[in-house]
Specification:
Layout (H helix, E strand, L loop, with lengths): L1 E14 L6 E3 L26 H10 L3 E4 L23 E3 L4 E3 L5 H11 L2 E6 L6 H12 L5 H8 L10 E4 L14 H18 L4 E5 L11 H10 L5 E8 L7 H5 L1 H22 L7 E9 L6 E8 L2 E7 L5 E2 L10 H15 L5 E7 L8 E3 L5 E3 L3 H10 L3 E9 L1 E4 L2 E4 L1 E8 L4 E8 L6 E8 L7 E2 L2 E3 L20 E3 L8 E2 L5 E3 L3 E2 L1
Parallel strand pairs: 1-22, 2-3, 2-14, 3-6, 5-13, 6-7, 7-8, 8-9, 9-10, 10-14
Antiparallel strand pairs: 1-17, 4-5, 11-12, 15-16, 17-20, 18-19, 20-21, 21-28, 22-27, 23-26, 24-25
Helix pairs in contact: 3-4, 3-5, 5-6, 6-8, 8-9, 9-10
Bound molecules: alpha-L-arabinofuranose.
Keywords: Carbohydrate metabolism, Glycosidase, Hydrolase
GO molecular function: alpha-L-arabinofuranosidase activity
Organism: Bifidobacterium simiarum
C-alpha cells in the first residue's frame, strides 16, 4: 500500500478561516448543566463555570461556539434565561423531553465565551419564536444603551454590549422534528423578515441561513435554492449539518470512508449556492457554515418511527421522556475507529476551506462530545478529542491542493485512496503540516508527500504524531483515560530530521497521522 501526494506552494485550496475549528453546545442533557455550569462545586468558579472545562476549551483555541441549539432553540424563549436566577421559571423542553431550569442563559453564555476566549455564535428561535423576539435578542446583546432591552442587560449586570457578530436564523428548519417546522417558502419568508429586523438593530452582524442537511429528506438542496432566492442578499453563510453513524451493515472500512460522504455533501451545498448566485446575478460570495459535524452512533436514542406521512418521510427521536432536569442523554462513548473517522472528516473540511468558513464539532461537552465530565470533578478526553485537537492546533495556514497516486480501496463510497491526506502550509512558522489517514486496517502504508515550489532546501520531517492501536473498539474511560492517546514516532535521519523528499514515511495500519 503506497500513497504519493504532490503539493505545490502555488496550488492552494485556500486560507483556513479561524472559525473552521469551532464547536457547539446546546441545552441538551449534561452539556450546559454539569458540563459548563455546575455551581457550588469545588471544581467550579464563583460564577458556577467548571474550571477544568474552561481550561481545556481555552487550550483548543476555538473560533466560535454555537449556542443554545440545535433542536432546543426552536422551543426556547431567551427571556426565560435572563435576570435574577431565583426568579427564573422552569419550562418544559420539547426537543429532548427534559425540564429546563433556565439557570444558564444568554448572559452566562456570553460571559463564559469571554473567559474561554471564543466568539459566541447565537441561534435565534425561528420555530416557535417570533421575528420580533429575534430582533430583541440582538438588541439585548449588541445595543449600547437607552432602549428597553439594552437597559435590561445593563440592569442585569452587563454594562458593555457583547457585540455578538454571528447569528443563525433558526436550526434545521427543514425537519419535521423541529418545533414550528416550516416549508421552504414559509421559512424563507420568516427568515428574511427576521434577517431584516436583526440587521436594522445591528447592521454589522453576519447571518447564517438554514440550508438542508439530510439527503434522505425530499427537500434536500431544493430547499436551499428556494431559501436563497429570498435571502441571498441578507446572509453570509448557509448552514448545513453532517453526522455519520456506523449502522450494523456498515463495515469498518466503509465507516472510515465517511470523509467522502462529507466531501460530497459539502460539494452539493456548494453547487446549490453557486446556482443561486448565478440565477440571482449576485456578485458576493456566500460560504458554508457546517455548524454541526461529528460521528454520532445514536447509542442511547431510539429511532421511534420512520414513516411516510402525506408523502413526506419523517422520523421522531425520543430521549429520556421522563421530564428530568439535565438527564444524562446522548452521552456517546467514542472508540478508536470513531476517532479515525473524525480525523477523516477533518480532512474533508480542510480540503474544502475555500467554501467552508465555519465548522462546529457537535458537540463540545458530555453530549456527542470530545470532552466528558463526572461529578467528582474529573474530565475525560475521549478518543475523538485527539484528532480534533490536532486539527485545531496544526490546521492553521493555507491548505495546498494535493494530487494523489497510489493504492485504492473499494468502499461504500466507491473506489477511494487508502491513504487520504491534506497539507497545510504555515508560512509564518515556516512549516508544512500534513494530516493523513491510513484506512488500511491490516497493513502500514508507505506515504510519500512531495512538495514543489518551496524555496530553499527540501523540507525536513521534524515530527510524526500518530493515533492508532491494536483494537479499533478501544475507548478511553475515567478509569483508563490513556487507552487511546497520540504517540510520537521516531523520524528518520542522523540529526533526527529526515528529508521528506528522500523517502517515504510509514503510516501504521488504521492510523491518524
Ligand atoms: O446535536 C444534536 C442535534 O442534532 C441538534 O440538536 C440538531 O440540530 C441535530 O439534529
Amino acid at each position: 500500500n503506497t500513497a504519493k501526494y504532490i503539493f505545490d506552494k502555488d496550488f492552494t485550496v485556500g486560507a483556513i478561516d479561524d472559525k473552521v475549528w469551532s464547536s457547539f453546545t446546546e441545552h441538551l442533557g449534561r452539556s450546559i448543566y454539569e458540563g459548563i455550569y455546575d455551581p457550588g462545586k469545588p471544581y467550579s468558579d464563583e460564577k458556577g463555570f467548571r474550571n477544568d472545562v474552561k481550561q481545556v476549551v481555552k487550550d483548543l483555541n476555538l473560533g466560535v461556539i454555537r449556542y443554545p441549539g440545535g433542536n432546543f432553540v426552536s422551543n426556547y424563549d431567551w427571556k426565560d434565561g435572563i435576570g435574577p436566577k431565583s426568579e427564573r421559571r422552569k419550562t418544559m423542553e420539547f426537543a429532548w423531553s427534559s425540564i429546563e431550569t433556565n439557570q444558564f442563559g444568554i448572559d452566562d453564555f456570553c460571559q463564559w465565551c469571554e473567559e474561554v476566549g471564543v466568539e459566541p455564535m447565537i441561534a435565534v428561535n425561528l420555530g416557535t419564536g417570533t421575528i420580533r423576539s429575534a430582533a430583541e435578542l440582538v438588541e439585548y446583546c449588541n445595543h449600547d444603551s437607552g432602549t428597553y432591552w439594552s437597559d435590561l442587560r445593563i440592569k442585569n449586570g452587563h454594562r458593555e454590549p457583547y457585540h455578538v457578530k454571528y447569528w443563525c436564523l433558526g436550526n434545521e428548519m427543514e425537519g419535521s422534528w423541529q418545533a414550528g417546522h416550516l416549508s421552504a417558502e414559509d421559512y424563507a419568508k420568516k427568515a428574511r423578515e427576521a434577517a431584516k429586523m436583526m440587521k436594522w438593530v445591528d447592521q454589522d452582524i453576519k447571518l447564517v441561513v438554514c440550508g438542508t442537511s439530510y439527503e434522505m429528506l425530499p427537500e434536500y438542496l431544493d430547499w436551499d435554492i428556494s431559501v436563497l432566492r429570498e435571502l441571498y442578499r441578507y446572509v453570509d453563510y448557509v448552514s448545513t449539518h453532517y453526522y455519520t453513524m456506523q449502522s450494523k451493515d456498515i463495515s469498518d472500512v466503509d465507516f472510515l470512508a465517511s470523509w467522502k460522504e462529507l466531501d460530497n455533501h459539502i460539494n452539493n451545498t456548494r453547487h446549490a449556492i453557486q446556482l443561486s448566485k448565478d440565477k440571482l446575478h449576485e456578485t458576493k460570495d456566500v460560504k458554508i457554515c457546517l455548524d454541526e459535524w461529528n460521528v454520532w452512533n445514536f447509542q442511547d436514542i431510539k429511532m421511534d418511527s420512520m414513516e411516510d406521512l402525506n408523502g413526506k418521510t419523517t422520523f421522531e427521536l425520543t430521549s429520556a421522556g421522563k421530564w428530568e432536569e439535565h438527564p444524562p442523554i446522548l452521552q456517546e462513548k467514542y472508540s478508536l475507529l470513531d476517532a479515525l473517522t473524525v480525523g477523516g472528516l477533518g480532512l474533508s473540511i480542510l480540503n474544502n476551506v475555500d467554501i467552508v468558513s465555519i465548522a462546529c464539532l457537535a458537540q463540545l461537552i458530555n453530549v456527542i462530545a470530545p470532552i466528558t465530565t463526572d461529578e467528582d470533578g474529573n474530565l475525560l478526553k475521549q478518543t475523538i478529542f485527539y484528532p480534533f485537537a490536532d486539527l485545531t492546533r496544526y490546521g492553521r495556514g493555507t491548505v495546498l491542493k494535493g494530487v494523489f497516486s497510489g493504492g485504492t480501496q473499494n468502499t461504500r463510497m466507491g473506489e477511494l485512496p487508502t491513504v487520504v491526506a491534506a497539507a497545510v502550509s504555515d508560512e509564518q512558522a515556516g512549516q508544512i503540516r500534513v494530516f493523513a489517514l491510513n484506512s488500511d486496517l491490516s497493513a502500514p502504508a508507505s506515504f510519500a508527500p512531495e512538495f514543489r515550489g518551496f524555496d530553499g532546501a527540501a523540507p525536513k520531517l521534524v515530527k510524526h504524531e500518530v493515533l492508532t492501536g491494536p483494537d479499533l473498539k478501544a475507548r478511553n474511560t475515567f478509569e483508563h483515560p490513556d487507552t487511546v492517546v497520540p504517540a510520537e514516532l521516531p523520524v528518520a535521519g542522523a540529526d533526527g530530521a529526515g528529508s521528506v523528499g528522500a523517502g517515504a514515511v510509514e503510516l501504521p495500519a488504521a492510523s491518524w497521522n
